[in-house]
Design a protein that fits this description.
Layout lengths: L17 H12 L10 H11 L6 H10 L4 H10 L11 E6 L2 H5 L2 H11 L12 E6 L11 E3 L2 E4 L3 H12 L7 E2 L28 H13 L20 H11 L17 H9 L5 H5 L3 H10 L7 H14 L22
Parallel strand pairs: 1-2, 4-5
Antiparallel strand pairs: 1-3, 3-4
Helix pairs in contact: 2-3, 3-4, 6-7
The structure holds FE2/S2 (inorganic) cluster.
């Protein structure tokens, strides 16, 4: 972190509005006798919010007087934490993380976009829209690289989505915080991989993602002895009963023995469970999906996004040629140990 200095242009004075002063006095009361100075950070923060989101030197002295602290102590705090802006900032102030995990995942490319679109660090664009600084780890390394813009985190940044983000903000749009790629919170990019069992369908609408989250909470709540129980194979469930009913009406479970869908290239056992849940049990069902069917599946089940075309081709290959992933049909038209795909 570079040296942080006070802005050369300072207002002559600062004092809290009556409302902010009353709020500050309430905060101070929350601390034990003799420990009132511990309120310094929230009170400095309120001073910054009152002063157009930057902290002038008179505000530092004002807060020091309020808490009966030496000026130098409050000055040290204000200049140490990058959450305190010591110069005017833009309407959108970007704090770009440049610490190792973010740097390894492309923060330097995002930094180049900041320089190109906004200018040098600390510079405020002429119309007062943007400013940026590089900061240390903001604790969202799992979705690196990331930046905080005002009060929100924007994660999984790429030069393209970051440019689009700045462009949207410039145009006054509400831009969705969090991962800027199709990632669920901080789960792996390809979707949650663990704690997929245990989610029970309930009456009423409930998304598959929600079911996974609830399953995770339930699993955490198990007594410690559960942790050493034999691991059961995951049994992912759709979790949204209305979605399941709609799917079953569309795909209709065929009679007879089910095919082993994991022989279709790209379908793993979790995907097979989910496909079975919506009524898909046979290679032939997959091989005959219409564009509408594929669109339905990819829209309702985001974890299958971009996969159905490949599965469809693999299922057709499996039926017609016995490859990839299995032997050719025998004379009776069935595959080794499998039923003939009759549906
Ligand atoms: S390293 Fe960037 S958020 Fe932690």
């Amino acid at each position: 972190m570079s040296v942080r200095r006070l802005d050369p242009n300072q207002p002559s004075d600062f004092e809290f509005t009556p409302e902010n002063l009353a709020w500050a006095m309430e905060q101070i009361k929350k601390y034990p006798e003799g420990r009132q100075q511990a309120a310094v950070i929230p009170i400095l923060w309120r001073a910054q919010e009152q002063h157009d989101r930057w902290l002038p030197e008179p505000a530092i002295r004002y807060v020091a007087d309020l808490l009966e602290m030496p000026y130098i102590r409050v000055y040290e705090i204000a200049t140490f934490y990058t959450m305190f802006n010591l110069s005017p900032v833009g309407r959108y102030h970007v704090q770009l993380c440049g610490t190792t995990p973010c740097m390894l995942r492309g923060a330097n490319e995002i930094k180049a976009i900041c320089e190109q679109e906004i200018g040098s660090q600390g510079h405020v664009t002429p119309e007062g829209v943007f400013s940026w600084i590089e900061v240390e780890c903001l604790g969202a390394c799992v979705n690196a690289p990331m930046a905080q813009i005002n009060d929100d985190f924007y994660e999984d940044l790429t030069p393209e989505n970051f440019k689009a983000l700045l462009d949207g903000l410039r145009k006054g749009r509400n831009m969705k915080p969090g991962p800027q790629i199709p990632r669920q919170c901080s789960a792996p990019v390809s979707g949650p991989k663990t704690l997929l069992n245990g989610a029970q369908p309930q009456a009423g609408a409930r998304s598959a993602e929600r079911a996974v989250q609830e399953s995770e909470i339930q699993n955490r709540a198990q007594p410690a002895v559960e942790a050493v129980s034999p691991v059961k194979p995951p049994e992912p469930q759709i979790g949204d009963t209305s979605k399941v009913e709609e799917a079953r009406a569309r795909f209709q479970k065929p009679d007879g023995q089910a095919d082993d869908l994991t022989e279709v290239a790209g379908i793993d056992s979790k995907s097979q469970h989910l496909l079975n849940e919506i009524g898909i049990y046979r290679y032939g069902q997959i091989g005959r999906w219409s564009d509408e069917d594929r669109n339905w599946i990819e829209t309702r089940l985001p974890r299958f996004k971009g996969k159905t075309e490949e599965w469809m081709a693999a299922a057709k290959a499996l039926i017609e040629t016995g490859s990839p992933g299995g032997a050719a049909p025998n004379a009776a038209g069935t595959r080794q140990g499998k039923t003939k795909d009759e549906d």
